[in-house]
Design a protein that fits this description.
about 55 residues; single chain; 3-stranded antiparallel beta sheet; mainly beta; elongated
């Protein structure tokens, strides 16, 4: 899945970490395991009042 959305990755996530906070923006790091058991991760920059559905 080359361009996965944050909603899709949250469902696969093994770990979700707040990586950085700057003013009204937060960087989330989402980690998961692929089908081969290799850990993958991707960072997302979220603005104030953005919502993520778990």
């Amino acid at each position: 899945m080359p361009n996965q959305s944050i909603s899709e990755l949250v469902k696969l996530a093994d770990k979700i970490t707040i990586d950085q906070v700057k003013g009204k923006k937060v960087t989330l790091k989402i980690s998961w395991f692929d089908l081969k058991g290799v850990r993958k991760s991707k960072k997302f920059l979220l603005s104030e009042k953005e919502k993520i559905e778990f």
